[in-house]
Amino acid sequence: MATTTLTDSTFERVVQRDGIVLIDFWASWCGPCRMFAPVFEQAATANPDIVFGKVDTEAEPNLASAAGIRSIPTLMVFRDGILVFSQPGALPAKSLDQLITAVRGLDMDQVRAQVAAAKAMSA
């Protein structure tokens, strides 16, 4: 599956879906972003059951701001609508594969319980 361009109007709907969603926040002028793009594309091809989204921070500055993007590239991973990973910097292919394996292996009942506990603590 090829990557999907995400916009302010499609972002929420895509990340709230069931399953795994990886999002690459990037810009055309960013050298590390251009270096990471083929790695991200290759992972998308190798994992057709995962949504691989791309957000052009130049075209979508409000979305980048709302997501708290301070450095690009930034990779965010959602599973079943829950943010489970967010990190700036370009990952090598092996690290991206390891991240995908780790996200696949998450116990989402445990993750949901941790999210609920964190919300209760902050209330």
UniProtKB/TrEMBL annotation:
Which residue range or ranges hold the Thioredoxin domain? 1-105
Write the record's keywords in alphabetical order, separated by commas. Disulfide bond, Electron transport, Redox-active center, Transport
**Site residues (Deprotonates C-terminal active site Cys), renumbered to this chain:** 24
| CDD domains (UniProt xref) | TRX_family
**SUPFAM superfamilies, A to Z:** Thioredoxin-like
Q: Which organism is it from?
A: Nakamurella multipartita (strain ATCC 700099 / DSM 44233 / CIP 104796 / JCM 9543 / NBRC 105858 / Y-104) (Microsphaera multipartita)
The feature of type site (Contributes to redox potential value) is located at: 31-32
| Family (UniProt) | Belongs to the thioredoxin family.
Query: NCBIfam families of this UniProt entry?
Result: thioredoxin
Its Gene Ontology molecular function terms?
A: protein-disulfide reductase activity
Q: Which PANTHER family match?
A: GEO12009P1, THIOREDOXIN 2
The residues annotated as the active site are 30, 33
What is the protein named? Thioredoxin
UniProt GO cellular component terms = cytosol
List the cysteine pairs that form cystine. Answer: 30-33
Q: Which residues form a coiled coil?
A: none
